[in-house]
Write a structure and sequence with these properties.
By secondary structure, this protein is of the alpha/beta class. It folds into two domains: 137 residues, 3-Layer(aba) Sandwich (Rossmann fold); 204 residues, Dihydrodipicolinate Reductase, domain 2 (2-Layer Sandwich). The protein is built from twelve helices and 15 strands. A nine-stranded mixed β-sheet has the order 14-13-12-11-7-10-9-8-15. The chain has a six-stranded parallel β-sheet with strand order 3-2-1-4-5-6. Helix 4 links the parallel strand 4 and strand 5.
């Protein structure tokens, strides 16, 4: 079925019975996608999806991939993203996969390498990169508007009732999910921070399960550092309720505060490096200019689909291409590794060491896996 009257790519959906798939429908409609086949291992839950889209349904992936198509959308549970994505690319399809792109960065390495080898486009659903206020913050940092970056802080809470975790056996388990708040809720937060400020290369993290009935972490805190000398702090939790998620960045030339739909920028009238050596009261802070506000839009699946279709037409990488999204997963793995080993982690992450840690955690995983 063509999702709208505009002609767009022919799409196969893998894992179409997943709860996240309905959020993709506006994006498919916006680009005039024609869904020509849907797949899931749960035939009972898949059938209503196929009937709604008026397309064939498959529980066998090989049968699905025999249908002529342009793009595969992978929305199956994330432990299967790597295998399914690679299978789709090997069948000649470009791929958009839900976040996280995989459970461990070694899998993401293979996904990116296979995309390069086959000349296929690999994109990840990091739609928050398309938010206009995120783009504005990224531009400010890249243009040096805040001077030398000194500190980057990320604070994100995703309050959840116990019922959220009871709704699916894989949630919050090492075997079923491969992590907790970081691999699930925190992916967009970590990605937005890295997309705007660049990714840190030093991590010391503390993970804990302070409230939720899960075996993985429900809270992660970390000190982080950048090669430039900037430092910062990450705190992400499903066990706390706080004001909305935010990123704060301080530089010698000013500071910004980034929230959903809003960017606040306060520039110093004098760069802190010049202020520090200037005459005057030793206790006086540098004067600031008027607060600048950017009201943002975007950040939904519609924007990620529009960008992907434009990227395919223009022969350029999509905004959240696989090689860039890989860094978000590497940071996620590094935070988990540091919290379990008590060690400072320096990137690039030792893939083999993390794989061994994940194997050991899965081996001890309880019934929820």
């Amino acid at each position: 079925m063509r999702v709208s009257g505009v002609r767009g790519p022919r799409v196969l959906v893998v894992g179409a019975a997943a709860h996240i798939f309905p959020s993709h429908l506006p994006g498919l409609q916006a680009v005039g996608a024609e869904v020509v086949g849907v797949h899931d291992v749960n035939a009972e839950r898949l059938q209503p999806v196929a009937e709604r889209l008026r397309c064939p349904a498959f529980t066998d992936l090989d049968a699905l991939l025999r249908i002529p198509a342009d793009l595969a959308v992978v929305v199956a549970p994330h432990p299967f993203h790597a295998e399914l994505t690679i299978r789709c690319m090997q069948s000649g399809l470009d791929v958009l996969t839900e976040k996280p792109m995989a459970v461990e960065v070694a899998e993401a390495d293979r996904m990116v390498a296979e995309a390069d080898r086959l000349g296929r486009m690999l994109a990840v659903s990091f739609q928050h990169r398309t938010r206009t206020e995120v783009q504005a913050a990224r531009t400010l940092i890249q243009e040096g508007a805040l001077g030398v970056i000194q500190r980057v802080d990320l604070l994100a809470t995703w309050p959840r009732r116990f019922g959220y975790f009871a709704s699916a056996a894989w949630r919050g388990s090492w075997r079923g999910e491969g992590g907790g708040v970081l691999i699930n809720q925190g992916q967009h937060d970590l990605d937005t921070m890295g997309y705007v400020a660049g990714f840190p290369n030093r991590i010391v993290a503390w993970g804990r399960t302070q409230l939720q009935p899960i075996e993985t972490e429900d809270t992660m805190s970390a000190m982080i550092g950048w090669e430039s000398g900037a430092v910062g702090f990450i705190h992400i939790s499903t066990a706390e309720s706080d004001e909305e998620r935010r990123i704060e960045i301080t530089g010698t030339g000013g500071r910004l505060r980034l929230r959903r739909g809003r960017l606040e920028v306060l520039r110093n009238d004098v760069d802190m490096r010049d202020h520090a050596v200037s005459p005057g009261s030793p206790y006086e802070a540098p004067p600031t200019l008027d607060l600048e506000l950017v009201e943002g839009t975007g950040g939904k699946h519609v924007e990620i689909y529009r960008d992907l279709v434009a990227a395919r037409a223009e022969g350029r990488p999509p905004i959240a291409h696989g090689a860039s999204a890989l860094h978000t997963l590497e940071l996620t793995n590094a935070l988990i590794y540091s919290s379990h080993t008590g060690q400072e982690v320096r990137l690039p992450l030792d893939r083999g060491a993390y794989s061994e840690l994940l194997r050991s955690l899965r081996a001890r995983s309880g019934a929820r896996g």
